[in-house]
Amino acid sequence: MLSRNKNIVYIALFIAAASALQITEWMLPNPIPAVKLGLANMVTLIALILYGPKSAFWVAAGRTIFSSIIIGTFLSPAFVLSFSGAVTSAGVMVLLYRPLGKLSPVGVSISGAVVHNSVQVLLVYLLFIRHPGIMFILPVLLVGAVITGSLNGYLAKKIAPRLAEFSPRRIYLASSSPRRKDMLEKAGLPVTVIFPGEVFPGKVEETPRPQEDPKKYARRQAENKIKAVYKNIKPPGCVISGDTVVACGGEIFLKPGTIENAEKMLIRLNGRRQEVITAVVLKELSTGRIYKKTVSTVLKLREFSRADIIKFSREHYDKAGGYAIQGMKDKHIEYIKGSYSNVVGFPVGAVRKLLKKACN
What we know:
Helices cover 53% and strands 14% of the residues. The chain is built from 13 helices and 7 strands. A hairpin with a 5-residue loop joins strand 5 (273-284) and strand 6.
């Protein structure tokens, strides 16, 4: 009950914020007639990302009703247009948005803005001004929708991660990697980082067992990270972890930890075919269900010069195998077969599939 009451308070705050933005835009001069920034739609999108579809509709409907009462347009033609545009826009964003979906928050926001403006023009024509000339304004509004939708989507993508701790669908990332957090948030998934070593120092053993298969080792490590943090966090929500290793010639290459070790690793991997393996594990906090996915990417590095080895070992001794693919140029890589994001730091596609399974 307490959790539900807190969510109601948060949604009420979202409605208040969206209403304030809508009223402010109404008060400001409008250089281009009928084209507004639509910042209230950004709040709707953030509510969708953090709280889900129902909350997005509450924010969209609530802010149009509340703001129209304040400015004195409730139940007027202006209210009909505003309410219809806001609700249909929210509906489109609900249909298109998926955590780590192929369409980013910016794309979702643009789609919502285009539908918002299109619906308003259509309603003006059907209900108020039956003149074909009304349609001539549509191209201007669509261009404006792309611009304002891009802005609002960008802002939503930046703001939502900072509000993730207030989300009832909180997603924890059991990782010390800033890159993994950055990759997920750029894909539109706000996460709360919880590092296993900070919760239970020394509890995650990273030494491979004798003759251990690289994929089994990566899975075991990812599961161990979940175990290390699981009892320290509360439902609802889920926790995601991952572990990446490089396998080459029957050996498992972990993070070198020092420049000297990185040099030794790079010399052994130099010019050889290798496999980058990442195991991703997701645990749903309410049910305890575990979902797993292992991703393998095969690549071959070209022969490094001594200068390259020195350079990479000093820059990437904290990466599995002692190198970072994004820090290399084409001259250093012969080929890559499989997920590029896996080699960069985290297989975003695999995380997307696990979240889809957990949410169904």
